[in-house]
Amino acid sequence: MTDAPSEWRPLHWTGESLVIVDQTALPDEERLVECRTIDDVAAAIREMRVRGAPAIGISAVAGLALAVQGAAREGGDWRRALSAGEALLASTRPTAADLFHGLQVARERVASAVDAAEAAHLLGQLVLELLDRQWAIDRALADYGAGLLRSGTRVLTHCNTGALGTGAFGTALGIIRRAYELGRLEHVWVTETRPRLQGARLTVWELRRSGIPHTLIVDGAAPFLLARGEVDAVLVGADRVAANGDVANKIGTLGLAVAAERFRVPFYVAAPLSTFDPETPDGNAIPIEERDPAEVLRVKGTWIAPADTPVRNPAFDVTPHWLVTALVTERGIIPAPDRRKIANFLAANGRGTSVEPGETGRDER
Ligand SMILES: CSC[C@H]1O[C@H](OP(=O)(O)O)[C@H](O)[C@@H]1O
To answer: How far is the CA of 190 from the centre of ligand 1 (A)?
Structure first.
């Protein structure tokens, strides 16, 4: 067991349900939602009541556990229920690598189960294991990331990458929390993160709980602050890291990376190994989730443009690896990531196969 304290956690596995903090209700209300079936879990993920790549991955495994429990109760074909559950969950949010990594880990865990009861037990135990392990992963990643920051650092972060996003301590926001614990963090610029406002609603909420100094800005103000020298480092999370180091993350991340490079500010991406996908060769191959146009047209139920206005609403964008100063993981830092470095890093950490030294994988800019 890790040293996970009884700290506040937004995900709780009861053994027969997944209890989540409904992130669509924050910051107005800390509402709990109990997911008793895989359909409940799939709906919660699709509606972003639970969100954030690692939290989505753990929730997906809980959904499969509930599906197999149902087959055990009804005497149904549990392997068919598992396959149908995988397909349902895979359709919810196609960009987050952790979701597919969670489905793979679950499938491997029950490969030799002899019946539905054993499979249900194994998956329930896996949910608890993943929740516990996420704490250790986040804390290790936070330590590596905080080591990159010097005293007095002013950080800019995008979207929400805290406990709400991982179910534990957080990734980029975990680095921020750890750096603050170590006395290295002076201030956090928080982008509101249109259209779902994860920064304004969730990151501000988490920073207030942690007592960390912060200022909320509109997304468009970030390049201005970078140009004015008011940011010492940009810290963001990830939803998928491709084999060459290209990063899919919340829409708006690419613009931050371009501005950070132009104004010579380090751009760090916090990503646990579960967010790396060696099967995705580069950023062009990452499926980018397109969400409901109403998310853009309405803010808290108020229309800000005519309902029939044409809208594009990609939930993520892709930052090329050559704009990433370093990837921060729970197993260490990957500076100036490229295909070879990532392949060798993953191979050294039990995920994938290494490549020859001469093969840099340095893609053309
Ligand atoms: C540790 S959360 C990682 C990642 O997930 C968020 O996306 P969403 O709010 O749509 O689930 C955001 O891109 C974070 O950087």
So the answer is: 14
